């Protein structure tokens, strides 16, 4: 989450004080991302240094400063909104590594491992759904924030489901292991690194 | 307290000998009034079989099925049929509404089949439709409604009258995610009014509307979620 850009977006509506920015940030992101007032002022300070926001002259007390977006700030905001986020996953997905490692350990029931993670992810999904259920249906911000997390988590469940089916359809793997034959899979560490 | 639905060591075997298929093996499951339970599992895990047995649409090979404390095997066929009409509501993937009837006529059909007069049935039907906020559509024909509206009518039909058990098999069907979510909201709302709900789904997002998710695999219950802590715990975690 880019706090500086979120603050720029709020300032693009008109000049505001730090405290109001904090309140608006929290309410518009569905209260899912708490932001303390210290973070708000540190971020505003940096934005001011970079010429993206400015304050009224002569006010030194931070809580009495009113911030305004500059034309450079508006340009930065417009660019940021159109820049695709980093979608390439971190090179080592912990869950993928765990599953690949589990595959190499004969006494481990891989389906049980997959189920442990599936349950855990779905329990987190239940909590995000509760956030949505508790909010009014008109509260679009809450729904959008919860949806983003839910779709991300759902993708993990779908990966686990697919892994389950793939592994079930590969009895040859288990047979090879029982017979202590070399298994033709890529070394998990090679894949993940 | 008597559970709205209780399955005790329920097994279902199709065929015999070499073609024998164990669709369900020793399944135990209790669902209370006010609770929404989702059943998840891959294709062929036995989820739909579990639902049809719970709804008395099919008989278990062994084990007991109790609806409101009544063992379905201990009552006559006609009593079972009456129980299906009066106590159990079904919601199917393709809605199963009768196109030639209006929304409210579809809703009141199970009541009228049960011998309730048309006038009283309509009043009860309209009241249920109001609860689910679709009374405006009461006199429109089923085939004039959108997919989302049809499923709301189907859910109303499933809870109208004194039904204490609501069974739904992939109830969001081909609806888009937002309409699918509305269906889950309705099912959840229905259970909050005291109905016990069981939803079969393979979609994690839909299952996450349930109070409890039960996982089936090869006919066995392999796992279930624990009651989720409140949403505020998400904030504390960060």
Structural commentary:
The complex is a heterodimer of chains A (193) and B (238). With 193 residues, chain A is mainly alpha-helical. Chain A has helices at 3-11, 18-28, 37-49, 71-82, 94-103, 110-134, 140-168, 171-178, 188-192, and strands at 16-17, 53-55, 66-69. Chain A is built from 9 helices and 3 strands, in the order αβααββαααααα. The two termini of chain A are 26 Å apart. Chain A has a 3-stranded antiparallel sheet. Chain A has 2 domains: 3-82, Winged helix-like DNA-binding domain superfamily/Winged helix DNA-binding domain (Arc Repressor Mutant, subunit A, Orthogonal Bundle); 94-192. The model of chain A is unreliable at 185-193 (pLDDT under 50). Chain A is elongated. Chain B has 238 residues and is α/β, with parallel strands linked by helices. Chain B has 2 domains: 1-87 and 164-238, Rossmann fold; 94-161. Helix content of chain B is 34%, strand content 25%. Chain B is built from 8 helices and 10 strands. Chain B has helices at 47-54, 77-86, 103-113, 118-131, 147-159, 177-192, 204-207, 232-236, and strands at residues 5-14, 21-31, 36-40, 62-67, 70-71, 88-91, 165-169, 196-200, 212-217, 220-224. Chain B has a 6-stranded mixed sheet with strand order 6-7-8-3-9-10, with helices on both faces. In chain B, strands 2-1-4-5 form a 4-stranded antiparallel sheet, with helices on one face. In chain B, α6 (177-192) links the parallel β7 and β8 (196-200). The longest helix of chain B is centred in the last third of the chain and has 16 residues, at 177-192. The model of chain B has no long low-confidence stretch (mean pLDDT 89). The interface between A and B is medium-sized, with 31 and 29 residues.
